[in-house]
Fold this protein.
Amino acid sequence: MTKNATITISNCWEDYFRKHDEGLGTTYERFILHNYFSRLKDRYDIHTVLEAPSFGMTGVSGINSLWWAAQGAKVTIVDQDLPRLEAIEKVWREASLAAEFLYQPPTSAELPLADGSFDMAWNFAALWHVKDGEKYLSELSRVTRKVLFVCVPNKQNVCWVLRPHNSEEYELKHINTDWILSCLAPRGWRLVETGFFDVPPWPDIAMKKENMLKMVGLGRLAKSMDSGDSKGLCILDYFSGQSPAMGKDILKYGFMEQSPNWLKKRWAHHRFLVLEKA
C-alpha cells in the first residue's frame, strides 16, 4: 500500500459519524474504561472532568466521557478540529447528555481554562496527536486539582509492529510512559497506579475485529456480537437506552482483564497512568 493510500485514524474519523458502526473492539475498550472510571470516581470524589485532547482512537470521536456525564459529572471536551468538534457536540445532544465543548487550534497547546478547574483531566490514546506534548501536559497539570488519568497504546504488545504508527502522523515519544512521568513529576504529580488494560481475546491489529475473527476461523464469535441491526454496534445505543444489555454482553469477553501482569504486558492494547497531586 502506498503512502497516499494508507487509511489512518486522522483521515477516516468522519466515516464513524455517518454510520455509528464502531465494531466489537472499540466498543469493548469503551466499556472497560467504565470500570476504571468507576474506581476513580469513588476514590477521588470526582464531579468535574476534562477530556483533553479527546481525539485519538477509532470510532465516534469524543464520546468516551459520556459515562461521566451519565453519572452527573460536569464534563468538558476539547478537540483540535472544528468540524469534528461540531460533530461531537451533535452526537452528545442526540444522546441527551450535556457537556461543554471547547475548540483548541491544532497549533496551540494552551487550554483557555482557569487553574484548578477540574477534579480530573484525562485522555485516551490521544497524546500522540498533539505536537507540543510537554506543554500540553503542563496545561493539564495546571487546570487539574486532584487526579490525572492518561491512557496510551501499549507499545509492548506483540502486535505493535503490525499497527500503522508512522512518525509523520504520530508523535511517538508522547506515548512513552517514562517521558510522560518526566514531564509531570516536576510539576507536583505523583504516580499512584499504572498497569495494562483493554485485554480482549483478540489481537491488537488495525482491523475491525469482526473481520479479523472471521479470518482466523472464529466467525461464530463474530456473529454472536451481531445485533442484527444494519447500523452496526455502537455504545451510543447503550447510552440512549436502545441496548441496555450491551455492557453485560460485551464484558463477557473481559475474562483476560485479570490475567497475570506478564501476559497483560504482551497482550493488552493499552496502558494507563493514574497520578495525583504530591
Q: What stands out?
A: The longest helix spans residues 23-44. The mean pLDDT is 90.
